[in-house]
Design brief:
The longest helix has 33 residues. The chain is built from 3 helices and no strands. It starts with 12 loop residues before the first helix and ends with a helix. By secondary structure, the protein is mostly helical. The protein has one domain.
Length: 76
C-alpha cells in the first residue's frame, strides 16, 4: 500500500469559490500539476544529458567508432 503525505496551497478565495461552482476538486488539480511537473523535469534532465553525451561523442572520430564496432563484432 502506498504512503501518502498532505500538501497544501494558498489560493485566492475567488478561485476556491469558482472551483466549487464548477465541481473541480483541488486535490485532483494539485495531483495532476505535480505529476506533469515531474514528467517535464525528467524530460528536461534527459535532454540535458543527451546534449552532454552528444558533445562527448562528437569528439570521437569516425575511425575510432569503426574500430570499436569491428572489435566488438570480433569479440562475439
Amino acid at each position: 500500500m502506498s504512503e501518502y503525505v498532505i500538501v497544501s496551497a494558498r489560493i485566492r478565495k475567488e478561485l476556491r469559490e469558482e472551483m466549487k461552482r464548477l465541481g473541480i476538486k483541488p486535490s485532483e488539480v494539485i495531483k495532476h500539476a505535480i505529476e506533469e511537473s515531474i514528467r517535464r523535469k525528467k524530460v528536461e534532465i534527459l535532454r540535458s544529458r543527451f546534449r552532454d553525451a552528444g558533445k562527448i561523442l562528437r569528439k570521437v572520430g569516425r575511425e575510432e567508432w569503426v574500430k570499436a564496432i569491428r572489435e566488438s563484432r570480433e569479440g562475439r
